[in-house]
Specification:
Elements (H helix, E strand, L loop, with lengths): L6 H9 L8 H21 L11 E2 L2 E2 L10 H15 L4 E6 L6 E2 L14 E9 L10 E9 L10 H4 L8 E7 L3 E6 L5 E6 L4 E6 L10 E3 L12 H10 L3 E2 L5 H11 L1 E5 L12 H14 L3 E4 L2 E2 L14 E4 L1 H17 L1
Parallel strand pairs: 3-5, 11-12, 11-13
Antiparallel strand pairs: 1-2, 3-4, 5-6, 6-7, 7-8, 8-9, 9-10, 13-16, 14-15, 14-16
The chain binds 1,6-di-O-phosphono-alpha-D-fructofuranose.
Length: 341
């Protein structure tokens, strides 16, 4: 793809490969790139700009709909993505980790024929935000569905509650030692690195695929004893095969490393939390879509997560994602335990 070096050039060049493409999705993807640059600027200067720490409301720490303490940067990232996506004419609704219900985006006051956009976006604006205060990587995760409900009406929950296999695009931004935007529209996975001196994302990781062999497994070791049967013996097996453990506590960072180095990410259900911790719509589904496009696979417990239809907006799910062979090894270990129960 000669000449298609910036994110915007690449998105537009790829659009030309789809007969009948209108450019609407391209516009939306480049808007996500713009919002990512704004959040990136704040994340990178957080220690200097007084934006570290928890968000306060009426002198008290605020919590999001999940009951988690909100960081100042959570609130900034949420506001920024909602503002940018809300002004994109292609967006008809947003579901954010930080908001209790659907944010309806109505463009009817903005000119004739404009109502509600044809795409809905599921977003975790700042994943792993508890890492911010200790200067470790954080990320943004997004998934985009085409609406099913009429465009003359506000988006409905069913527009968001679609299986991951039906996403039209998904991706993440990793605010790390460098900032990267990685996305897929279902024709492979491509990664772009932000050059702060120019203010652009440039194609740096074309056609990302899991390597042949895995070297890493990622799990919160503190949860191992309570994890569903099969996970602990599988981790023991990983150790005996020489895989090394890596876990940052930011899903985007762990997923990205495992995609590049080969590995598996696990956040299982446990005896006290059978659904685990991670959110289906704006964490698990977009990453499952990307893993599949990169030759990997994803399970929520024993089911292929790509085919699961969510039932609620803030649903949680166990998540096992990464190198297809490792996911298969894990499934076999879980199967074996289930058979012995
Ligand atoms: P926060 O955004 O609240 O920090 O949660 C991050 C996260 O959802 C995901 O990015 C991590 O993989 C996971 O939680 C880490 O959870 P544990 O701290 O329970 O391991």
């Amino acid at each position: 793809m000669i000449g298609a070096n910036t994110l915007q050039e690449f998105v537009v060049a790829r659009q030309a490969e789809f007969a009948g493409a209108t450019g609407d999705l391209s516009r939306l993807l480049t808007d996500i790139g713009t919002a990512a640059k704004m959040v990136n600027r704040h994340v990178n200067s957080a220690g200097l700009s007084g934006i570290l720490g928890t968000h306060q409301e009426n002198g008290q720490g605020s919590q999001n709909v999940q009951g988690e303490t909100q960081q100042k940067l959570d609130v900034y990232a949420d506001d920024t993505f909602n503002r940018v996506l809300g002004s994109c004419l292609k967006v008809g609704g947003i579901v954010s980790e930080e908001q209790p219900s659907i944010i309806h985006v109505d463009h009817s006051g903005r000119g004739e024929g404009r109502g509600y956009g044809k795409y809905v976006v599921c977003i975790d604006p700042l994943d792993g935000s508890s890492n911010v205060d200790v200067n470790i990587s954080v990320g943004t995760i997004f998934g985009i569905h085409r609406r099913k409900s009429p465009l003359t009406q506000p988006a409905e929950a069913t527009d968001f509650l679609q299986p991951a296999k039906d996403l039209v695009a998904a991706g993440y931004v990793l605010y790390g030692s460098s900032t990267m935007l990685v996305y897929s529209t279902g024709c492979g996975v491509n990664g772009f690195t932000f050059d702060p001196s120019i203010g652009e994302f440039f194609l740096s990781h074309p056609d990302m695929k899991y390597p042949e062999a895995s070297t890493v497994y990622s799990i919160n070791d503190a949860n191992l004893d309570t994890a569903v049967p099969g996970v602990k013996p599988y981790v023991k097996d990983c150790r005996s095969r020489g895989l090394t453990a890596r876990y940052t506590g930011a899903l985007v960072a762990d997923f990205h490393r495992n995609l590049i180095q080969g590995g598996i990410y696990m956040y299982p259900g446990s005896t006290d939390k059978p659904e685990g911790k991670l959110r289906m719509l704006y964490e698990a589904q977009p990453l499952a879509f990307l893993a599949n496009q990169a030759g990997g696979s994803t399970r929520c417990h024993l089911h292929d997560l790509l085919h699961v239809t969510p039932t609620s907006l803030h649903q949680r799910t166990p998540l096992f994602t990464g190198h297809a062979e490792e996911v298969q090894n894990l499934v076999q270990a879980m199967d074996a335990q289930t058979l012995h129960v």
